[in-house]
Amino acid sequence: MPGIPTTKRARRETVTSIDSSNLRVFPTIRAMVARHAPRALERLYAAIAAHPVASKIIPTQEQRDRASSAQLQHWLSLFGSSFDEAAVARATKIGNIHARVGLEADLYISGYALVLETIIESTLKGFTLPWQRRKQAKAVATLVKTALFDMEAALGAYFDAEATQRNDIITAMSKAMGEVAAGNLRAQLGDVPPAYRQLAADFHNMRHQISNLVTQMTDAAHGVKSGAHEISCAANDLANRTEQQAVSVAHISEVMRDVTVAIATTAGNARDVDGSVAEVSGHASKGGRIMDSTVVAMEKIKDSATQIAQIVDVIDGIAFQTNLLALNAGVEAARAGEAGKGFAVVASEVRALAHRTTESAKNIKSLIVTSNEDVQHGADLVEQMRDALNLIISRLDDTSSKAGDIASFSEQQSESMVALNAQLQQIDLNTQQNAAMVEESNAAARGLSDQAAGMAGIVGQFSFERRNKLRDGSADGRAEKYGGRIAPADRAA
């Protein structure tokens, strides 16, 4: 049936339609489209590839080729029959695709205009005579008329889809805002179309900010309540301690009197110690002088040992020379034969005696070396003993001085104790005043705790997320998605 399909006409009133005169030239238009549309589509998709926005919607050449082929088939089908329900359905599908991928209406219209421009211009170039142009006028007019109806069907579907998306977003946002108003700060927006993602991001940012604020208020309320409890406990503890302190102050006063007597006794003992230290220092000095004499005696022993060693060296030399003489005598006795045998025996005995003398000299020298080492070790020990005595004497002198200082300080402390007793009486008075102030602080802490509990009750009306669980667009990464509607989040107990 010629004209716009009834389903479309029922929704939108039109002042014109596709009539029989238009349908008669559809075959001519189909031939025009088959001949000139490929070049027109080539121009269109070349422009899309260069366009900063459209190129992102159809980014690859393969996608553009598929879209070009589908568009050509749509036009060939459109002019291959009447403008029926199937044609409207195809146009509606195109509009829905445009809405889904985010192709704006202005890009669609401008692209359609480029295609029509190319087809009409290419068609009219071949007709220069007036009668030829009149012949094609009906076809061109029908082409434009049909293209506008096709465009209207696609744009109607586009605007319908956009209106549906907008209504879904408004419904979802209204529901989410209602939940936020009711205190559920975990309300979620599910998946939204690209055009509304900033709105969803702003909503979630607002929700997160409110959640953070309520979290901070909750933490502050808990902190105030905890602090008030701690203050109350501290005040009670302070009251107990103040009472104990009053008892302790009285006890300290009694102890101070005993300490005063003890300090006086200590001063007398310090003077006695000073005298004893002086006596010990004298004995230590005498021991030091004895040690000095011992060191001198040890040095003399060491010198005598050195002289003995020198004498032994002389004896060792004599024994060596005697051994040589005995050896020479033995040689001469051997030359003398029988006449020198007796002399050879004597020479042998002399050589043996010289050998024993040498061995004895070596033993004596070894003993002298050992004796020198022992003497040196003894001298070192005596020297260390002398140093120790000198240190003791020095420490005794220092101790004697400090003992005198102790006696002097003890007398001063005895005088200070009198003043300290007066101060203790003042402390007792201050302690009683502190006890009264502690009771007032305890009452204020109880009031603060009650106010914190009231604040926590108000904040507890909100259902919200802790800061470490917030996520952009979802509460805990497990929120359900409902295509633009609220995804209910699990409520915390």
Automatic annotation (TrEMBL):
Region annotated Disordered, chain positions:
470-493
Q: Where is the HAMP domain?
A: 170-215
Q: Give the Gene Ontology MF terms in alphabetical order.
A: heme binding; oxygen binding; transmembrane signaling receptor activity
Keywords annotated in UniProt: Chemotaxis, Transducer
One GO biological process this protein is involved in is: chemotaxis
> Which residues belong to any copy of the Methyl-accepting transducer domain?
220-449
Superkingdom is: Bacteria
Identify this protein by name: Methyl-accepting chemotaxis protein
- Provenance organism: Novosphingobium sediminicola
